[in-house]
Amino acid sequence: MDSEDRIALFLDYENLALGARDNLGGMTFDFRPIADALAERGRVVVRRAYADWSFFDEDRRMLTRSHVELIEMPQRMGASRKNAADIKMAVDAMELAFEREYISTFVLCTGDSDFTPLVHKLRGLNKRVIGVGVEKSTSALLPPACDEFLYYDRLEGVEVPAARTRGGGRPATRAAEPDQRRSQPAPESLPEALPEPSQEPPVRDSDALAVLVAQTVAGLQGSSSGEVTASTLKRTLLRKDPTFSESDYGFRAFGELLRHLAGRNVIELVTGRVKGDPEVALPEHGDQEAGFALLRSVVQDAGDGGAALSGLKNQLRRVRPDFSEKKLGYRTFLQFCKAAATSGAVQLRWTPEVDDYLVTAPS
Prior knowledge:
The chain is an alpha/beta fold. It is built from 14 helices and eleven strands.
């Protein structure tokens, strides 16, 4: 138990419940998917939800069954219930951060950017912060501030109802009721609702994923002792993009994603010191001459004008996602290009007009 993360959960309930209702086809908010997602991340020791519960009578029963402490924020004359809930939630979170040092993770269920200063303060106190919010009602400022951000509508167990067609199906049905009793055209209206599943978010580009993982592994190998574990890689990916989730790419677990990339020869997996946490490395692909040949090929494809040094490395990785100059013995990409120029594979010169090096193919 001592190795488990202790989690304090705070729900800005009005923001979350109304966000789900207004942006997810009128669905009723369900706390269980959040509880399940957090159970995978540690032990939740504090659960608090803030709202004027006279507006959420049924929700209050649901939360009570999940052992959530309900903090009442009643509407007062001349006061804003919303602002009062935000301030109370922020004060309680800071109080717990100072009083209960064993709490390592704070989960803020809200999409409101007003909580961004609280996130920064908690992280400054060496606390991990996870955000949860409905995607369409979450401010773009909040997810990058968190260590990890979970979109409620993407959580396992959240079933978003199909959106109704514009104009609403029910009024048209009522207007046609007399004719429907005779001709029963109702089945003909069904095909209009069938295209809805195609509106689901598409699976993200797996090639972009390969580049992202390869770049991250290369960076970790260059800045550490060289050993990169799967857990370290996942934490780093979340630091780069707090909304990162392997499920967005069609994988059920991070290990499944790594095995897929290993099968494509983007990475290599080696049994690590800790069971279930393999080491991740970039596979060896050719020697120094092969690296120079790759650089020359990409520069030639860029045309007679050549390519600027900035951005050139990304062009190489589009061709070979696992490319890394560090694997070839060079500390920087510029050093690698200079060596390629010395060998005659490319030409390298400083261009004041663009304030950058220009890499061209030899004439």
